[in-house]
Design goal:
Elements: H1 2-34, E1 41-44, E2 56-58, E3 73-79, E4 83-88, E5 91-96, H2 99-103, H3 108-115, E6 116-117, H4 122-126, H5 130-138, H6 147-154, E7 169-173, E8 179-184, E9 190-193
Parallel strand pairs: 2-5
Antiparallel strand pairs: 1-3, 1-6, 3-4, 4-5, 7-8, 8-9
Length: about 190
C-alpha cells in the first residue's frame, strides 16, 4: 500500500514538473514570437510622439510635436518594471508607464505592445483614402480622416479616458496639461478637432 502511494506521489510530481516546464516553454515561445524581449528589434505599429529633449516616450501617449513614423525600426535595450529603454536612429528613449494607465488595468507590456510589434500594417494604410494617408504621414489629425487613420496617426488614445473606441469622441493629451478631443460622426469620420 505504501509503495502504491509513493508511486502515485512520484507520478504527480513528475507530471507537475512536466507541466511547469511545458508552460515555461510556451511563455518563452510566445515571447519570441511577440518580439518583446531585450535586444529584440521591433517596429512601430503607429506614429509615436516622443519628447526628444528628455528622450522619453510616455505610455499615456502625449501628442508632442516630434514624430517617430509608423513602421520605424527600434531595438529594445532594457525591460524594467516601470519603463522600457529602446533605441531609434541611435538615440535611446525611455518608454515610461504611468499611474493612470496602471490604474486602468493595463500592464506596461500590454501598453507597449499597442505601439510596437514585429510588423506594421502597411497594407491597411495603403487601402485607406489619400486624405487618410496624408494625415498619417504628417502625424497630425485632420477633419475628414477615419478612425483607422487616426489610430495610425496618433496611436490609441489613453485607455483611462477611453476604455473603448466605440464612442464618437476620443480624448488625447498634447502634454500633461492640455487635452485634445477628436470628434467623429456616426460613420467614424473626423468632424472636429478641439
Amino acid at each position: 500500500m505504501k509503495l502504491k502511494i509513493k508511486a502515485n506521489s512520484l507520478r504527480t510530481i513528475v507530471l507537475a514538473i512536466g507541466t511547469v516546464a511545458m508552460s515555461h516553454s510556451l511563455v518563452v515561445n510566445a515571447e519570441a514570437k511577440s518580439g518583446f524581449k531585450e535586444n529584440a528589434t521591433m517596429v512601430t505599429k503607429v506614429n509615436l510622439h516622443p519628447d526628444p529633449k528628455r528622450r522619453v516616450l510616455y505610455a499615456l501617449n502625449y501628442q508632442l510635436p516630434s514624430l517617430i513614423p509608423m513602421c520605424s525600426e527600434v531595438k529594445i535595450e532594457d525591460i524594467g518594471k516601470k519603463e522600457i529603454e529602446f533605441v531609434y536612429q541611435g538615440m535611446t528613449y525611455r518608454y515610461v508607464w504611468d499611474k493612470h494607465t496602471k490604474k486602468a488595468g493595463q500592464s506596461l507590456e500590454q501598453n507597449f505592445k499597442q505601439y510596437f510589434g514585429t510588423s506594421c500594417d502597411e497594407a491597411k494604410v495603403a487601402s485607406l483614402s489619400q486624405a487618410d494617408q496624408d494625415g498619417i504621414k504628417s502625424g497630425k489629425p485632420r477633419v475628414g480622416m477615419t478612425k483607422d487613420a487616426i489610430l495610425f496617426t496618433m496611436g490609441r488614445p489613453p485607455i483611462h479616458a477611453n476604455p473603448t473606441l466605440d464612442g464618437n469622441t476620443w480624448m488625447y493629451w498634447s502634454n500633461k496639461w492640455t487635452r485634445q478631443a477628436i470628434d467623429f460622426d456616426d460613420k467614424g469620420v473626423v468632424t472636429q478637432i478641439r
